[in-house]
Amino acid sequence: MKNKEIAQIFSQIADILEINDENPFRIRAYQNAARIVEGLPEEVEKIEQRGGIGEISGIGAGIADRISELVRTNRLSYYEELKAKTPEGLVRMLDIPDLGPKTVALLKQKLGIENIEQLEKAAREGILRNLPGMGEKTEENILSGIEFLKYHRERILLGKAYPLSQSIIILLNKISSVKRISAAGSLRRMRETIGDIDILATSEEPQQVMKVFTGMPSVTSVLAMGETKSSVYIEENIQIDLRVVAEESFGAALQYFTGSKSHNIKLRELAHKRGLKINEYGVFRISGERIGGREEDDIYKVLALHYIPPELREGLGEIEAAQQGRGLPELITHEKVRGDFHVHSNWSDGANSIPELAAAARRLGYEYLAICDHSKSLGIAGGLSEERLRKQIKEIKALNKSFSNFQILCGTEVDIDSDGELDFSDDLLSELDIVIAAIHTGFKQEGSRITERIISAMENKFVNIIAHPTGRLLGEREGYELDMERLIGEAKRTGTALELNALPQRLDLSDVHCHMAGSAGVLIALGTDAHNAAQLEVMQYGVATARRGWLEEKNVINTLSLSKLLKKLNNGKT
Ligand SMILES: [Zn+2]
Ligand SMILES: [Zn+2]
Question: Which parts of the sequence belong to the Polymerase/histidinol phosphatase N-terminal domain (predicted)?
């Protein structure tokens, strides 16, 4: 755990203590600890390793123990207890700009306000101005702070929103009156991040459905409950909207609420030219006569379009392609994926052994799995020395004798150093089945310099794939400013594949870059970058992103059978 994270936890503890009106000395102690830890020149993890936590100046014995617990276990029982006994809504109120824990405590004591919704209501009703130290201006500030918060509320990663929506859909589907149900919105288009989660259902007893929905145990607050639409928050401020629509409108509503906006605007223009009107209720002639809307495909059919998969509905040429003649891409599907090119074992920083990973891959029906542990210079991630890698190759080869129709590929995620040199010699790389090369340091270099580093790795005849090419981490870090066009050209020239890293926080290449690469004839390699066996399942997000990038089976090397893949790898490059 990094110093900054520890500091954040301590300052949150101080805030919670203050909300609960606890001993001011204790509050001060945590505020100080947060400041001291954040300013330390050395990582606390290192200090712990040499047993020096107790010697950090300004930190008392009690807090030193808490730091040790955090570093050793990645959690802090005191913090969890504190959070458990404090309503989550109170803590969340601290996110409102300029609203401190003292005010939150006051609002709770005097008015019983425990969450942002209650606060907003009280501010609108002009109740807050009667509190000591508050006035009309404070109410205005609080309301504009809440607006700001709503606007900047963080988007949720697809990898979080998708399973969440699936579990809600499964729950609601158990209600006997629910006939059809689906996710809509950007989630159905499988965008890398999602604002609100939209769900659409049909039922003859909407009230019953809304009751189950708003009463789900995970609901932290109900924003609205109506006959046709309800909205709730679950856990950390994730908004879920459920609409119940008439059976005859389900297709039209699904199309409408799936979007995107620019896709729908183009569709409405097309409809207008044909003397038709489409909206969330159906397809109509100008006379008002209804001619469709029960099925989503009705909308596309009346406009003489082929059905457009949700992942393509971004208004980026898909409508033109769906008109006769041009043809839409035959998008890659999850079933076509026969293996994973990027997996870490417990030889480096992964959690599972190679046999465990192989067993998990076989359960997924894969024909191959590339073990690509980190290389020697990546000490923090347990990078393998030449010797260890040679030992791993031997073990994998022995293990492979026990399989039929399945093979573990000996690989490495070889580091590209700050000058573009690879971490292992060609001699060693030549002994491997597959080599993926990646940048893990020197992110701050200029884009042109990083582009050159990657290109020099592509020039190596043993490098098959460039992993997570842009290095972005969604919500945390932008990718490097690469010259993507140039990189794609060089990938094509050198016969190097580009990775689509399927980890939800990476999805790198992005959908847009996948489209560029695919159009240029550069092959894409899907890799989960799994650090444990369960993570192999994030492949679905990689596939979704590939689909958003218009990729077909032929663009993605994971669709090759084992024998075809080995042949390709034996011929060098991809
Ligand atoms: Zn990596
Ligand atoms: Zn990796």
Answer: 339-418
Question: What is the Å distance from ligand 2's center to 456 Cα?
Answer: 20
State in Å: Cα 168 to ligand 2 middle: 32
Residue 84: its pLDDT value, please? Answer: 85
Domain residue extents for the chain: 3-152, 156-245, 249-322, 334-570
Q: Are 342 and 527 in contact (CB under 8 A)?
A: yes
Between the CA of 522 and the centroid of ligand 1 the distance, in Å, is 21
pLDDT, tens only, 282-309: 999 999 999 999 999 999 999 999 999 9
CATH of 156-245, one of 2.60.40.1120, 2.60.120.200, 3.30.460.10, 3.10.450.50: 3.30.460.10
Fold of 334-570: TIM Barrel (3.20.20)
pTM of the model: 0.76
- The CA distances from residue 373 to 438, 453, 470, in Å, are 12, 21, 20
**Most confident stretch, 139-143, 291-295, 322-326:** 291-295
Distance 397 CA to ligand 1 centre (A): 24
> Which overall architecture, per CATH, does domain 3-152 show?
Orthogonal Bundle (1.10)
Question: Please, is 492 exposed, middle or buried when counting C-beta atoms within 10 Å of its C-beta (0-12, 13-18, 19+)?
Answer: middle
CA of 310 from ligand 1 middle (Å) equals: 30
